[in-house]
Amino acid sequence: MKFSGSDIAARLGVGKSVVTGFLRREGLQVPMETIAALRAKKMTGRTTSDKRTDAFLKGNYLKMPSKTMADKLGRSDSFIRCRLRQLGLVIPEEVIQRNKQLARFKPGQEPPNKGKPMSRAQYKKCKATMFQKGQLPANTYSRDGIISIRKDKRGVPYKYIRTSPGVWEPYHRYRWEMFRGPIPDGLCLVFKDGNTLNTKLGNLELITRKENMLRNSIMRFPSELISAIHSLSKLNKKISSWEQKTKSEISQITSSSKSKGSTTKTSKAKTSKTK
Hints:
Blueprint: H1 5-12, H2 16-25, H3 32-42, H4 51-60, H5 66-73, H6 77-86, H7 93-103, H8 120-126, E1 147-151, E2 157-164, E3 167-170, H9 171-179, E4 187-191, E5 204-208, H10 209-215, H11 223-274
Helix pairs in contact: 1-2, 5-6
């Protein structure tokens, strides 16, 4: 409690990780208030702050976010955070969450710069990096007809073809409609061999949505296998329920034994004091 981890490591001639590892293994946890005080003591004299700034921070660190204090003092946000640590001022978690909520845009809230024209100096500064009318991003493909492979939400890859700038279509649908015509409503275009990258016309076929559901659901298996899958699912649910119940009972027994142990220690301490 008297020295920081780095000071202890320097005195013993070992790395700081050795000290922190030892404290963790022995279950010795240094309170945050002590850590903040040691940091403040170590950083004393190593700052460009003054008494007026320190007084402002001490009076407002629980009322204002660090960025607001930085704007009012004409300092950087990193300076404010560093100086708070040096002064041993720890912002509670509930205050941090409150400041986050206050800083978020509310529904219907207008930004402070809405309707305000950019100053000439700012416009001159930003003009070089502004997008010009008709300008395309640097990663834009040079022509149409380029094929790209992308994965959907399930991670299944599909080929896409660029038909115009910014417009990409599934390549298997594009080929089918080019050679066989539009896909009728209610039908699905699928791959015969299941390989989504094989876009040859011979590997594509139109099927109904019902048939597509049957192909991709449990109903595609024999009745005996379907029954076995249902039974296995029920068994897994029972096992999961039993495991959760057992964990809950073990945690209750552990917590009750700890409370009994702490009560015994307290009673022994009281008895020794009485003696």
